[in-house]
Request: fold
Amino acid sequence: MFEKVMEKARFQTPLNDFELVEQDIEHRRDPLTGKWSRVNIQRSQRVKQAESDVDLSALVEKSRVNCFFCPENIEAHTPRFKSDLIYGGFITRGETRLFPNMFPFARYHAVATITQNHFQRTGEFTQSQIEDTIFASLDLCNAVYAKDSAAKYVTFNWNHLFPSGASIIHPHMQITLESRPTYMTEKVMNACKDYLRKNNRNFWTDMVREEKKLGERFIVAMDGINYLTSFSPFGNNEVIIIFEDKTAFTDLDRGDVSNLSKGVIKLLGGYEKLGVESFNLTTYSGPIEGSAPGMNLHMRIVSRPQPKPYYTSDVGFMEGLHFERVVETLPEDVAETMKKHFKSN
Reply:
């Protein structure tokens, strides 16, 4: 199930009087989609000229002054839904306020603040904050689908801090509903269907069983949700979250939301141990009330470069134009860190 090709790069390094050195490169093939990624953990040691040790506190304070998402500004400066879709124009759950994205890239594209605090570090989020944001997102999904049953493909997303693509520091998530799946969601759904047809078994059940047996990347099974690092990751420090019996994001009930939120908080605590501050999270969901044979609802979370005023992007020609991810963290090492964190809490 897990295909890996090993090779060595040899060169004379100026870092040690041009001594001949070798670096191991792993080419890993995703067992479902066939996507390749490349792993070289020594890339983490390379010099990044754009990095700086400048404290972010000044940037955080400066951005706080006119932040649209802070409580004193959110009422006057964020858009609202039409009242026939969402009564009052927005959805509120605890600290979360959900409203339309002012610059959407989907027919239904919303933003949800996670907290009233302008800035929170990775390890400072609470389970209730995550729960409220998910519940508000589900409220939106139900309202939209009741009006427009073609909008059946949901993504639930979190870009945290600038390196992840966030344009605003204030913590927030984004939700989209569309009539077609994203490219990767469609690719995954088709691959799940093909695997089921060829093997008469569910890919996710088989993969989780194999990962448990190997023990290298499997982190924990908790409340019907499996957490493991990806054999062929989409990014650094990637963890994949797999629901055992859910197909679509809207299948989540109150208990599922609570369990997922608890798990996400544990993962963020593990990221804090790894020194991660910026990250991306997204879902891959089957359609609302639709058929997606062999598809399990799952999520991926990946770390991004440290949020410094000047930083080196982790997306280059290989990632952006060839769609092969170059990774400098070993999935098996990330799994060990996460296992320890889940057990210690």
User: Anything to note?
Assistant: Helices lie at 57-64, 71-77, 127-147, 183-199, 203-214, 254-274, 317-320, 331-344.
